[in-house]
């Protein structure tokens, strides 16, 4: 079981670690999901699918969210893929008070052992036109999508550094790669995760800790169903072009990319194109990846112009239709 694998780096005190410092012992990096996992947002959607995959691999999983009833329901569902003792729940608002988050994570570690794998999946989207969204929504999006990840990561990072081992995932969004109509508050909070991820990766790589930044497309989850209710027509039409994916497929891709130690995790053809065209100064994972980015970036920039033309045309057509409808009234 997972915690047997969590013994490796305990005795290492040096501030800068050697790669594979667990020398000879099997470590988290050999099978990233087989350790003690903490999945924020694990009571629903993508987070729940990730928790199921981790349990299937024998990991001990702590799922974190606010609503206790939904957590208990998810715990039963998730543990049906493994054993009851593999899943524990933590109810805390990750966006609110860091001390509370730290306390609840410490408690989780006291029963399941060190957190070696943190998946920051808690988040939500409130779409709407910029001037129609309450100002408080902009703060709320930053709190839920950005500060939750800051709090959770801060709660585990010292432990990971002292053990020279750990994996961290930030679940951003395709809306964290390009700004789209109706996503002024959401996109900004997901773009913020990228800045955090790039800077943090540079700080933690000497400690043998890897970070993966995932950019899911539209995914068929309870959160997506809720988001659909408030989406402007333009946002629906534009985001539909990438298709709708299942949470199982998205979770599997995030898992595979994380196990391979990739910095970016993208899903689908559009996702792959976006990851290449927006790679910028991001950390590189392999020579192959850098060559692929260098060769495709120029071409994909040209392709992006066609997409942008189509999106702008959609926005104009929606405006013209609304104008015509209001004249006919
Ligand atoms: N679904 C999509 O189309 C899509 C696309 C791109 C990116 N994403 C991103 O993927 C992640 C998961 O999305 P999803 O669609 O699976 O969402 P979901 O079904 O709504 O699940 C969200 C989870 O986050 C938890 N959560 C929300 N706010 C929290 C807070 N303040 N503190 C603790 N837990 C909190 C929720 O539980 P409680 O409400 O009980 O706290 C729930 O477990 C999000 O970050 C989302 O932005 C989703």
Automatic annotation (TrEMBL):
Pfam family membership, one: adh_short
CDD domains: KDSR-like_SDR_c
Pathway the protein takes part in: Lipid metabolism; sphingolipid metabolism; Sphingolipid metabolism
Superkingdom to which the source organism belongs: Eukaryota
GO molecular function: 3-dehydrosphinganine reductase activity; nucleotide binding
Keywords linked to the UniProt accession: Endoplasmic reticulum, Lipid metabolism, NADP, Nucleotide-binding, Oxidoreductase, Sphingolipid metabolism
Record protein name field: 3-dehydrosphinganine reductase
């Amino acid at each position: 079981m997972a915690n047997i694998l969590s013994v490796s780096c305990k005795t290492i005190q040096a501030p800068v670690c050697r790669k594979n410092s667990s020398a000879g012992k099997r470590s988290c990096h050999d099978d990233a999901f087989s350790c003690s996992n903490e999945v924020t947002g694990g009571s629903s959607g993508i987070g729940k699918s990730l928790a199921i995959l981790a349990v299937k691999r024998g990991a001990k999983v702590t799922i974190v969210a606010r609503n206790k009833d939904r957590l208990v329901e998810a715990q039963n569902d998730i543990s049906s893929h493994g054993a009851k003792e593999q899943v524990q729940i933590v109810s805390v608002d990750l966006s609110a008070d860091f001390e509370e988050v730290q306390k609840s994570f410490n408690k989780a570690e006291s029963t399941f052992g060190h957190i070696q794998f943190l998946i920051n999946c808690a988040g939500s989207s409130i779409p709407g036109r910029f001037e129609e969204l309450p100002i408080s929504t902009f703060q709320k999006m930053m709190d839920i999508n950005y500060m939750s990840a800051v709090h959770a990561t801060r709660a585990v990072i010292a432990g990971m550094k002292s053990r020279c081992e750990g994996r961290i995932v930030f679940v951003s969004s395709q809306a964290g790669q390009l700004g789209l109509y109706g996503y002024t508050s959401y996109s900004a909070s997901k773009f913020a995760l990228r800045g955090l991820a790039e800077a943090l990766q540079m700080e933690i790589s000497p400690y043998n800790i890897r970070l993966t930044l995932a950019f899911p497309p539209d995914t068929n989850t309870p959160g997506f169903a809720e988001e659909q209710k408030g989406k402007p027509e333009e946002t629906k039409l534009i985001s539909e072009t990438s298709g709708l994916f299942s949470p199982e497929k998205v979770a599997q891709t995030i898992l595979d990319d994380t196990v391979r130690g990739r910095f970016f995790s993208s899903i689908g053809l559009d996702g792959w194109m976006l990851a290449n065209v927006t790679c910028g100064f991001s950390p590189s994972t392999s020579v192959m990846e850098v060559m692929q980015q260098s060769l495709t970036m120029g071409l994909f920039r040209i392709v992006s112009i066609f997409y942008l033309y189509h999106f702008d045309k959609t926005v104009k057509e929606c405006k013209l239709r609304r104008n015509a409808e209001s004249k006919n009234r």
